[in-house]
Every structure is written in C-alpha cells, then in structure tokens.
C-alpha cells in the first residue's frame, strides 16, 4: 500500500521533443482529450518548456518543448536541460517530411546521452505511404534499441497503442499507476496487469518445494488487488485489505493444500501447482475488476466460480 501511495504522490514528467511541426502539441491534446496546447506550426510558437495537465491529475505533466530546429538558439538548450528530469521522452519525427533527417539524428543522439527512456513516435502517418519501411528505417538508424510507434495525431490512429507503450516504459520505472488512472478505458490496463500477474503466479506456483510459493504468491495477489483498487479509485483501508486476505485464504485453503501436496509428484506436480496458482490469481483479478467496474461488493462466490472455470479448461495449461 505504501508503494502504491508513493507512486500516486510523485510527479510524472513526460517530455515531447522533436522538430517544429512534428505534431507534439496536437498529440498532447489527443492524450489529454481537450485543446490545451497550441497547434500553430510556426517556428518559435512554443518558446518555453510548458506543462499541460490532465484534469484531476495535476501530478502528470506533459511538457511541450520547443522545436529542436527552432530559430531561437536558447530553446534547444532549455529542451536538453529538461530531458534529464523527464520520466519518459517521446521523440517525434514527421512521416510526411524527411523522416529522421541528419539534424534529427544528431539531436536524438544528444538526447540519448541524457535519457534512455525513449519512445520514438512517427507522426502524421495519415499523410504518408510505406509506413512499415519508415518504421524499419528509424529502427536501423537508432540501433533497434527503442520502440518506434506510427500514429496520426490528426485522426487519432494508434493513440491507444501510444498510451499502452507509454505505460509499458513507465512500468519498468515503477511509475505506471498514475498514468493508468488518466486513461478513459481502464479495462485494457487492468486486463494487462491481471494477465501479467497470472503468468507470474504460474511461475511461483510451479516451484517444486512444497510451501515455498505461499508467501510470494499471496503478496502477488494482494498487490494486484490493491493496484486495481487504486486504478478504479476504490481505496482500500488496512482493515479491508486484511479482510480480503483472510476471506480469500479461507475460501481457497483446499486449493492451497492441494497445491502443496501435488508437488510431491515429480514433474506433473509442479505443472498442476502452477495451473492452480495461475487460475486462482486470474480469478481474483477478474472478479475484483468486475466488482469495481460495476460498483458492486466483491463477491467471493463469483471469484471461486471463475477459478473453477479457468482451472478446468482443457487448454489452460497450453495458454
């Protein structure tokens, strides 16, 4: 709970950099959902590192930086100074222009020395052709070290993918929760978290030593539920979390004992233990998510029902 609260208290800085007219400001407007940044394409329009916030989430700051080819010599230096502080850098290049020009490559290499949490954004794909080859070209120019995401800030194409990619990078930095709360469709984010926890639980549950999985598995499951509670603005007190742990453990104690006993069977026992652990974690995640999305009390009967369905699916092990 402390880790989650710490995430929500820290500022999240997202820098958008690139040459003038690359579509940085229009992308900010798309992500935030309203016209907050000027989209005038004239050089010098953005003359400082300006923060834009999502309403109600002031700790998320999108920083619209001056164009790297801005005629004002002071602006590029201000941009580079800010790069050091950013949690993630969105580097824009224009699909309808000279993609990743020599000057862009030079500026990119300078930025890379200050911050390696970079997502390359190929914007204006609605006005260009051969997008796949352009993406491949950018990857080759940057050593294939970074994701290259084609979008159109004008039509909104691939904006959901852009948000998902931002989340992925922020997750590695332990700062994805605040940005996830800003997304209108929280369901997709929740599903990714639940699926990831299910995979991790399967690995933990497959540990061959009986009893070795109980503490880490419980921590994983409780952590998932608390994170979902924060995502859906359903805060859980210590007492609520404690009750959730006790009831979940009590209702699944038979499966917990089974998981430990079956491990005495070489090979197949570990696989069975992994399946039980994974299916229980998925059932917990989807059950809690369903309750939060529909504003109903958490139903343990519903969770157990989902668990039984998952565990008994013939192809669950393969999945």
From TrEMBL:
The keyword Nucleotide-binding applies. InterPro entries: GTP-bd, P-loop_NTPase, Small_GTP-bd. It comes from the Bacteria. Keywords: GTP-binding, Nucleotide-binding. Residues 14-124 form the G domain. This is GTP-binding protein.
């Amino acid at each position: 709970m402390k880790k989650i609260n710490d995430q929500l208290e820290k500022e999240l800085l997202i820098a958008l950099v690139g040459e003038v007219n690359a579509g940085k400001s229009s992308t900010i407007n798309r992500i935030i959902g309203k016209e907050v940044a000027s989209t005038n394409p004239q050089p010098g329009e953005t003359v400082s590192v300006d923060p834009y916030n999502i309403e109600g989430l002031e700790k998320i700051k999108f920083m619209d930086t001056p164009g790297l080819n801005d005629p004002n010599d002071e602006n590029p230096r201000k941009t580079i100074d800010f790069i050091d502080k950013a949690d993630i850098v969105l580097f824009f290049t224009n699909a309808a222009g000279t993609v990743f020009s020599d000057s862009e490559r030079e500026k990119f290499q300078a930025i890379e020395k200050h911050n390696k949490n970079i997502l390359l954004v190929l914007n204006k794909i609605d006005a260009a052709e051969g997008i796949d080859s352009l993406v491949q070209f950018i990857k080759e120019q940057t050593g294939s070290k970074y994701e290259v995401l084609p979008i159109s800030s004008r039509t909104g194409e691939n904006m959901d993918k852009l948000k998902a990619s931002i989340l992925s990078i922020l997750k590695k930095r332990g700062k994805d929760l605040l940005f996830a709360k800003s997304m209108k469709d929280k369901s997709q984010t929740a599903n990714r978290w639940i699926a990831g926890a299910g995979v991790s639980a399967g690995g933990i549950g497959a540990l061959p030593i009986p009893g070795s999985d109980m503490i880490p598995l419980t921590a994983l499951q409780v952590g998932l539920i608390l994170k979902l509670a924060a995502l859906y603005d359903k805060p859980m007190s210590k007492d609520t979390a404690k009750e959730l742990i006790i009831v979940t453990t009590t209702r699944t104690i038979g499966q917990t004992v089974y998981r430990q006993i079956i491990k005495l069977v070489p090979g197949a026992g570990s696989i069975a233990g992994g399946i039980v652990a994974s299916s229980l974690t998925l059932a917990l995640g989807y059950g809690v998510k369903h309750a939060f999305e529909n504003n109903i009390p958490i139903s343990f009967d519903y969770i157990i029902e989902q668990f039984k369905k998952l565990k008994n699916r013939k192809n669950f092990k393969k999945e």
